[in-house]
């Protein structure tokens, strides 16, 4: 690993948590260069909903490459793009009676967030945007401005303005009527908040600590936006593409956002791709007004089309709901009883074990390190990184899901015993 330490920038992150050199991956397992297998409860930060090297998607991708299909096409018309758009409309939009135009952005989710913010301001001719505390929307300047984490915001190096943050319906704001607060901000002529062009939100805050917004709350936010001529942008980069059960995370609320941001698992194979869905009347872009060299990843189009078909044929939505029941019951019956200070929340196949009352980020870090020592990849999220984040591939086999949950339980139990022993030793020394 000396070559990484010597040559790669200090900005590297995940490799510090998982200091192994990985060589291959299949399904829900990663293998290091020595052949050791690791259960993956991280899924490429949500980019691998269909698992590593999904056979169905891989076959379509290899066939396309072997046929010398277009590998790079900017935003030109191509067969790969046509087939993806046709399939997306047939399998995703039409069955839900959704009418969106598709804008292909740069390779990552943050670029589609940037496009959404730019377009909202252009349409409404207003500069302010409302975002929520606990939000994460990306690391480029526009996306970073609507991201609430102070540490990563400081990395911008410049002021991040034209955004007002509101409390999200999470544990941190328990007892606060966040909807009433939002209405007050928008109607009080002394709120100090300029009328926004848009509200941007995640229906479940992933990096914010797995905070699941109540269905009624989402419905009311949508209603407030309509009443005040404000666009609603839903960031489905991490919790979309089936992660919460349905393809779109907002489906459970029966709402229709003005714009939807997709990335990560939309490509189906971990390939770079981001997509902005926008209502047709909002499409007032001038040609090339928001573009990029890699805004049309042809191989991602091929993989994305295959993923959508695979999703239908494998009845993935039903499978996710079955696995959701298992993981919810397992956490409630086998993990939470370990200590009264443990809390859990989640939806679909994204769950968090909140350790904030057990030493916060330090304890959660210990748990994740213990999991890694047991050959499992799992990460943290939330304030102070105090939430252990369970996010396996949607295709994970039940025996692997059970084994992964067991490792999490055993790791938490071991860390609790260690903490108690250390506390007893400290008390004994003090005496």
TrEMBL record:
EC code: 2.6.1.76
Mind listing the UniProt keywords for this protein, alphabetically?
Aminotransferase, Pyridoxal phosphate, Transferase
Top EC class, one word:
transferase
Tell me the first and last residues of the signal peptide. Answer: none
Top-level division of the source organism's lineage = Bacteria
Q: Identify the cofactor(s).
A: pyridoxal 5'-phosphate
Xref: PROSITE patterns: AA_TRANSFER_CLASS_3
Q: Which Pfam family, any one of them, does this sequence belong to?
A: Aminotran_3
Kindly indicate whether the keyword Ligase belongs to this entry: no
GO MF, one term, reads:
pyridoxal phosphate binding
State the pathway, as annotated in the record: Amine and polyamine biosynthesis; ectoine biosynthesis; L-ectoine from L-aspartate 4-semialdehyde: step 1/3
Q: Does the keyword Transferase apply?
A: yes
| Gene Ontology biological-process annotations | ectoine biosynthetic process
Q: Which family does it belong to?
A: Belongs to the class-III pyridoxal-phosphate-dependent aminotransferase family.
Note the PANTHER family from the entry.
DIAMINOBUTYRATE--2-OXOGLUTARATE AMINOTRANSFERASE (PTHR43552), DIAMINOBUTYRATE--2-OXOGLUTARATE TRANSAMINASE (PTHR43552:SF2)
Q: What is this protein called?
A: Diaminobutyrate--2-oxoglutarate transaminase
Q: Which organism is it from?
A: Eubacterium ruminantium
């Amino acid at each position: 690993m000396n070559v990484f330490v010597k040559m790669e920038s200090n900005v590297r992150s995940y490799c510090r948590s998982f200091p192994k050199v990985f060589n291959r991956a299949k399904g829900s397992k990663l293998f290091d260069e020595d052949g050791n297998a690791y259960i993956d409860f991280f899924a490429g930060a949500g980019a691998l909903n269909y698992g590593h090297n999904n056979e169905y998607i891989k076959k379509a991708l290899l066939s396309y490459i072997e046929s010398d299909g277009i590998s790079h096409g900017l935003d030109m018309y191509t067969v790969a793009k046509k087939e993806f758009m046709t399939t997306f409309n047939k399998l995703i939009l039409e069955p839900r009676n959704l009418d969106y135009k598709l804008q292909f952005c740069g390779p990552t989710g943050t670029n589609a967030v940037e496009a959404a913010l730019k377009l909202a301001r252009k349409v409404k001719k207003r500069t302010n945007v409302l975002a929520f505390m606990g939000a994460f929307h990306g690391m480029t300047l526009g996306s970073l401005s609507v991201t609430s984490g102070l540490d990563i915001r400081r990395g911008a190096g410049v002021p991040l303005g034209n955004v007002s943050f509101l409390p999200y319906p999470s544990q941190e704001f328990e007892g606060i009527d966040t909807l009433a607060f939002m209405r007050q901000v928008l109607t009080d002529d002394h709120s100090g908040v300029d009328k926004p062009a848009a509200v941007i939100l995640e229906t479940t805050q992933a990096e914010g600590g797995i905070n699941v917004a109540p269905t009624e709350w989402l419905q009311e936010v949508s209603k407030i936006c309509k009443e005040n001529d404000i666009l609603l942008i839903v960031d489905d980069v991490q919790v979309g593409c089936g992660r919460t059960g349905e393809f779109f995370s907002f489906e459970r609320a029966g709402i229709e956002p003005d714009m939807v941001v997709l990335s990560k698992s939309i490509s189906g194979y971990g390939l770079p791709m981001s997509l902005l869905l926008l209502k047709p009347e909002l499409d007032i872009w001038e040609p090339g007004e928001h573009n990029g060299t890699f805004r049309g990843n042809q191989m991602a189009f091929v993989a994305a089309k295959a993923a959508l078909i695979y999703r239908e044929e494998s009845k993935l939505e039903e499978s996710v709901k079955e696995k959701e029941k298992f993981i919810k019951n397992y956490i409630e019956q086998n993990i939470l009883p370990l200590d009264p200070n443990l809390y859990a929340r989640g939806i679909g196949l994204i769950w968090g074990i909140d350790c904030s009352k057990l030493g916060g980020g330090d304890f959660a870090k210990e748990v994740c390190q213990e999991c890694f020592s047991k050959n499992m990849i799992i990460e943290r999220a939330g304030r102070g990184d105090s939430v252990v984040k369970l996010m396996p591939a949607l295709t994970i086999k039940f025996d692997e899901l059970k084994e992964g949950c067991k490792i999490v339980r055993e790791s938490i139990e071991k860390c609790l015993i260690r903490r108690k022993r250390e506390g007893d030793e400290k008390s004994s020394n003090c005496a």
